[in-house]
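Cross-posted from the bioinformatics board.
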Amino acid sequence: MSAHPVAAPVDGAFEPVILGFTCNWCSYRAADLAGTARIKYPPNVRLVRLMCSGRLDPSFILSAFAQGADAVLVSGCWPGECHYQVQNLKALKRFQLLRRVVTGLGIEPTRLQLVWASAAEGQRLANEIGRITEEVRALGPLGWGGAAAAGPPVGAGAEPPGVASAAPPAVRDLTEVPA
Amino acid sequence: MSTQPAGRNEKVGVYICHCGSNIAGTVDVEGVRDWAAENLAGHGVVIARDNKFMCSSTGQELIEKDIAELGLSRVVVAACSPHMHEKTFRGACERAGLNPYLCELVSIREQVSWVHTDKAAATAKAKAVIAGGVFRVEEHAPLEPIRVPINPATLVVGGGIAGITAALELADAGFPVHVVEREPSIGGHMAMFDKTFPTLDCAACILTPKMNEVGMHPNVTLHTWSEVTDLSGYVGSFTATIRHKARYIKADLCTGCGICQEKCPVKVVDQVYEAGIGYRKSAYMPFPQAVPKVPVIDGPNCTYFSKGTCKACEKFCPTGAIDFTQQDDEVKVEVGNVVLATGFELFDSRRIEQYGYGRLPNVFTSLEFERMSNAAGPTNGRIVLRDGVTEPKSVGIIHCVGSRDRNYNAYCSAICCLQSLKFAHLIGEHTDATVHNFYIDVRTPGKAFDEFYQRVLEEGTIFVRGRPAEVTDALRLPDEADQEGRLIVQVEDSLAGMQRRIPVDMVILSAGLEPPHDAKETAHRFGISCSSDGWVIERHPKLDPVATMTDGVFAAGCALGPRDIPSSVANGAAAAARILGRIQQKVMSLEPVRASVDESRCSGCRICNDLCPYNAILFHEDQMVSEVNAALCQGCGTCVAACPAGAMSGTGFSDAQVMAQIEGLLSVTATGEQRLPHRLLEGVPA
Amino acid sequence: MSANIATKPRLAMYWAASCGGCDIAVLNLHEKILDVAAAVEIVFWPAVMDAKYRDVEAMPDGFIDVCLFSGGIRSSENEELAHLLRRKSKVLIAFGSCANEGCIPGLANLSTVPEIFAASYGDGNSTVNPGGVLPVPRWAAPEGELHIPVFAPVLRTLDQVVPIDYSVPGCPPESPRIAEALTALLAGLTGTGPLPPNGSVVGGGISTVCDECARTRNVKKIDRFVRIQEVPALDPTLCLLEQGIPCNGPATRDGCGALCPAAGAQCIGCYGAADGVVDYGARLMSAFASVVEADEPEEIDLILDGIPDPVGQMYRFSLARSLLRASRAALEADGARLPAEPDAASPEPALAGARGRWRR
């Protein structure tokens, strides 16, 4: 019952690591429903369960980027259906402001996405996860803070695609002339 | 590799479930177990085990034994979804003497093994998920559930058959019930019907005894011609504000003799009970069997109120019960639980202009037909055209009006097929008319439903499979010249494979059911959620169909979605049973996920004050600090995330816990290696 | 912390990548400066008295009792002195916003070094540099080889380079707070009073500026953000945020006395994050966004357009200390640098290897 074609992993290819924030009543249950229905989607998203998308603190998202996430997905109940009435709207507002800030720091807007999903929409959530995974794969790793923060590269010797400049230099003597 | 926060010395046990082959078929459970024992030792993991079925008693005993023998202070179980077995594993911990909130269940089934095919990737993700759980559980603190007392009184909102059922169950069990109904009488839509399908019981005959029971029950306080304007509080201790609209009649003096109604000179079209095809007076009881048997005076249509004259009702009232000075009044009642049985409204068929309702006189809605067919209705049970005299020789009944239609409502309204069959049968009983039913499918799932369908077929009803394109009085084809004054139903007969134009005298629209027009306000007022359609959302569509996500507020009947009378009755009884269980226990435990304010850090900026839909955040002007009422707080955490001073914290989902989980989830790469410690957080003070 | 103070406590004050305002703030103690001068021996204060680095190098380790270190770490010189002063000081204090969180110099983290050099040495309005001369770390002068400090790819806070003992927040720290902080520290060091717990913030409160602000506050519903000069007549008694001015007071540590709101200007956040908060901008963002009075994405955007520079608004003082620290381009150039190792020879640092731990 796979809706999203899951590409077979290519050795050495970049596999995005995406953090997803879900709410206990809608989007987390949608993920559970996708599981119960055995809907297949790429393994690149790791989910954090919050009681409500309104619990979403921009610090969580910034911390995720800082610690190596290539993208962040925010998901909650549809506006009008929040289990706590209107709290998902606060998440929406914070998301919109946060997006302006992270794009101002040079993170592509594709790396921070908001998807509403009700508890019945397991298939849809799976589709969205598949779509976002491919979009982020095309962008390449975010690698915030350089290679040292990103962990060992995937696949022997393979250069992760999408790194903006040449391979970062080894530990530099501060007396070197900057480029 | 990252280590435990300074000063922490937790002993964490990690338990990984195979779930038969559900998890083990995709995730290398033993490998992950060994990985956890080795790589998460720096985060307190002292033991990692696996088991075929962690939720079994054997599995749970593993945990209990380790708590006892190894002195575990934290437990992480990697298995199915927390929605399945969080309680199970918390229970195991509690039995072994460990606070149940020091246990974290992470899903590697619904979220990993069941949805990913690449075993290496799934195993890597399982490691990340477990790392997330271990890092998080280190930040857990022991918590106690919040215990609240349960007031044995209940509020039932809506006096239709669902509300009546719930009220009687509770009242018969010996507990007080407040029934609030916005119309002058209870009874709801069922009181309007003629016969009920498939047994063709007379609706009033089976309903009115129940209505009388409610009216006379010593444990029931009936508030009719009333609305709930506010509900505050929380499960076990709600305060409902009920506004009694002015009847202009003193209920304690009224004997229900009906003279005021008789003498009242003002006649208006009754849009509610008579569905707009009959009249009532300005001083009126909606129907003779009304409960309570107290009329209301319709202020906007009363001669006294508009001109200052008449007062016929007052002159003739034998007990002096008329009181034109009466005002609305308000009462507050304390209840422990609420049942929302607010029912439905009919889809407005005028929206489908091509069916001509409201424009072509002989197009009727289902409710209009019910009143017409009813022997006590405005036509005394005669099926006649809008002129009130002519019997139709041919009737067309259109199914699915406004239902199963992306342009209006996509859902099926559940009752219209049986209702349409019922109408076909009743028309046959009352007249010699030919009946055509225009259907998409005939849905007859209930007991004796399909047999009823067969009966109606045998009675000679003609079924045309097609959704009519149009009901028109415009004659187009040459052979329609003699159909002047009749209606033509234009439809594609999909089984015959051809367009047809079928002349009829009367068309009945089986209009769909919709939530009441103020459903969303009601949801907001009662602190529950409704879907984008407006139906109340149940806690679980299969396993908990009468509870809402809000503790203490239940729902029954069509408020939840279209359903027939037996289902509504079952819902009402189920809601009552749930409440009776609560009342028996006298005390209820709530999950201790709550926000709180550290007053020393709160600056009184008031950014949080308006963020709570439950009004749980108070502001103390004298001290210029905010405070969270833990009993009202539902634990969403929105205020915790908003506080700019970092003065608010949330138990169960604290910043420390969520941040730790994020760190853990990201500590493993896509291929299962541990990442180098993230250097950007270094140097940040603890 | 044993106070091995034989004579008058020895005070040092240094300025790394800074404006000098912190030094002036200390001097602003006015007549109290004489008390300070009487109570301590000032052994090194380049802003105020002549000194050479080799004098500091010649001191025994731990010779300086209290070192007030202001300014961020932007150059190799700053970094060298951070390490040097850490070794030579018993108590090292990150003094002022630059040392604590980067402050205004930290905003340069939004640009790469080539961009900064182009602005400073190339395109500037008052720059005349037809030869395109750029600073180089080594220059062969006739007298010998000159070594010029190297400009690092990003600015770091003091505690991102060496462990510190206390923080004094503010841009600059308010003089009365400085007096209180110094008095408390000196009392602790001379054994006449308790020393504040190591690692704590001194000279600031544990709440936010709103706590000190006299303006009236109501339930927040913000339907617009405007620049302060766009409001014809500001109500001097009402919360600025409620008047549409994006005031950072709610997220900023108290201690300054809410001077700016009292003077009719919005708080811009110079006292840094509230106690225990790690990312200032995240808290401010969350607060502002949560009270925006709109529910549709387009309407929300319209209101947010009233903050034309969100990065600047949220991180004016705290960018270098925030979770993301700098722009992506600047960090990618910085990517190969590993954090400096804590000095083995320095006194037991309270925050050595401290990891980000979230208090709540």
